[in-house]
Design goal:
GO molecular function, one term: acyltransferase activity
Low-confidence stretches: 126-130, 446-454
Protein name: Chloramphenicol acetyltransferase-like domain-containing protein
Distance between the termini: 19 Å
InterPro entries: CAT-like_dom_sf
Pfam families: Transferase
CATH class of the largest domain: Alpha Beta
Radius of gyration: 22 Å
Mean pLDDT: 90
Helix content: 25-40%
CATH topology of the largest domain: Chloramphenicol Acetyltransferase
Largest sheet: 7 strands, mixed
Shape: globular
Strand order of the largest sheet: 12-11-13-16-17-10-18
Strand content: 15-25%
Keywords: Acyltransferase, Transferase
CATH superfamily of the largest domain: Chloramphenicol acetyltransferase-like domain
Number of domains: 2
Structural class: alpha+beta
Number of helices: 12
């Protein structure tokens, strides 16, 4: 697949940022992320026939609307500073335009994970790209020869989480349409969780070093249909877990199968840690909390010691119990004067096993479910597919499982990033294959083409 870069430029806000807003202090939670950028790709079909010139006109419109959007989201047009702040001097967002010498339909028949990074303006695993003085926002608009469009976004994870990226894209889409409500982000995260020191950054960096693995990362997409999830939830409920959620059962099943793969690959059973990023927005007592920009997440953790046989429903219970610890009360205490004490205690509970055991297998989950990415409409329809976290081929990586809604909003696509040998074993596990299909075409749903592409 040939992708031709036709232009690179910076899109500046349409109106200058007022002098009193030139420095945007980040919150203490912005010190957590251990990956440089939050990235995703939205694929839009051309439903009006083959019209490449019309798609090129859309790209021009996207630049104009992005300029207007950055006026509202002015920290995203800035540069990262050493003191964990954003210099909001309207440097602008990096904007890459590209032509794909292939039709969108041909690509979606069997998406190649090794080529996915070509739709992004940056290599997602490039650790030095979000360092001091780096631009916060990078986007790439790739136009297929059929007129279909892929919009790839890389936004610094020091500034926003996945929910924040969604708010930005929703605002950009609404601005492009012109007749939709303007999105004004809530920029109050630093006042809710002020950064009084860099203690969390230092602790997060130390934890990240424990998580890093050397080898060859392989990315596979395990797709759970709504029917498969319903069956899985019923089986878990029969064992005593009341009303298990989609995220709980999928996380527990993948964790169970990943532990088995690790044991088979290395002949040794290690303690296993599951972490899950928990969105704090609904747990914060403030208005407009859903549109808060920033890293409004904390981590739930569950540990399975070695030689401790756990059934699937046991693991589901453990996942649920870990979620319950990140309660409204915890968030309230974390915002108080002694908030750092509560945060440190929470992290120590998760990581205390590492001081007792030599080596630990960590599986790090994040969920984009119910974030409505499939509702983002720039004026030419909703996306046909959303690509999650892809670290295919990375020589140094972290075990990451990214859960994303299927297009119908009822199933889950689990983007699993693991060591090559462990993935080889995982993708053959009959427990997993009983509920999930591996890397099916996004065009296919229940054996039929999901959406015609001219």
């Amino acid at each position: 697949m040939e992708i031709e870069i036709i232009s690179k430029e910076f899109i500046k806000p349409s109106s200058p940022t007022p002098p009193h807003l030139k420095t945007f202090k980040l919150s203490v939670l912005d010190q957590i992320p251990n990956v440089p950028y939050g990235s995703l790709i939205l694929f839009y079909p051309n439903l009006n026939g083959n019209n490449l010139s019309e798609a090129l006109e859309k790209s021009v419109l996207l630049k104009k609307s992005l300029s207007k959007t950055l006026t509202q989201f002015y920290p995203l047009a800035g540069m990262i500073q050493k003191d964990y702040s954003i210099e909001c001097n309207d440097f602008g967002a990096s904007y890459v335009s590209a032509l794909v010498h292939l039709s969108l339909e041909n690509f979606l028949v069997h998406p190649d994970h090794q080529m996915m990074h070509r739709f992004l303006p940056l290599e997602p695993s490039s650790l030095d790209e979000s360092s001091e003085f780096a631009h916060v926002t990078h986007v790439q608009v790739s136009i297929f020869k059929c007129g279909g469009i892929a919009i790839g976004a890389c936004v610094s994870h020091k500034v926003v989480d996945a929910s924040g990226v969604y708010t930005f894209l929703k605002g950009w889409a609404n601005m492009t349409c012109g007749d939709k409500e303007v999105v004004y982000p809530n920029l109050g995260a630093p006042s809710l969780f002020p950064a009084k020191s860099l203690w969390l950054r230092d602790m997060s960096m130390a934890i990240s070093q424990l998580l890093l693995k050397e080898g060859r990362c392989v990315t596979k997409r395990f797709v759970f249909s709504s029917d498969a999830l319903a069956t899985l939830k019923i089986e878990v409920a029969r064992k005593g877990v009341q009303q298990p959620s989609r995220v709980e059962v999928v996380s527990a099943l993948i964790w169970e199968c990943a532990m088995e793969a690790s044991k088979e690959a290395y002949g040794l059973e290690k303690p296993s840690l599951l972490t899950h990023a928990v969105n704090l927005r609904r747990k914060v007592a403030t208005t407009l909390s859903e549109d808060i920009l920033g890293n409004m997440v904390w981590f739930a953790g569950a540990v399975s010691p070695p030689s401790n046989e756990k059934t699937l429903h046991d693991l589901v219970k453990m996942v649920r119990e870990s979620f319950m610890k990140i309660s409204v009360e915890f968030v309230r205490k974390a915002q108080g004067d002694e908030g750092h004490v509560e945060m440190q205690k929470s992290l120590q509970e998760i990581w205390e096993i590492d001081s007792k055991e030599m080596g630990i297998n960590s599986y790090n989950f994040t969920s984009w479910c119910k974030m409505s990415f499939y509702e983002i409409d720039f004026g030419w329809g909703k996306p046909i597919w959303l690509a999650g976290v892809v670290d295919e081929g990375a020589p140094v990586f972290i075990n990451i499982v990214n859960l994303v809604d299927t297009k119908d909003g009822e199933g889950i696509e689990a983007w699993v990033n693991l060591d090559e040998e462990e993935m080889r074993i995982l993708q053959a596990n009959p427990k997993l294959l009983a509920y999930a299909s591996i890397d099916p075409s996004p065009l296919i749903k229940n054996g039929n083409v999901a959406l015609p592409i001219p």
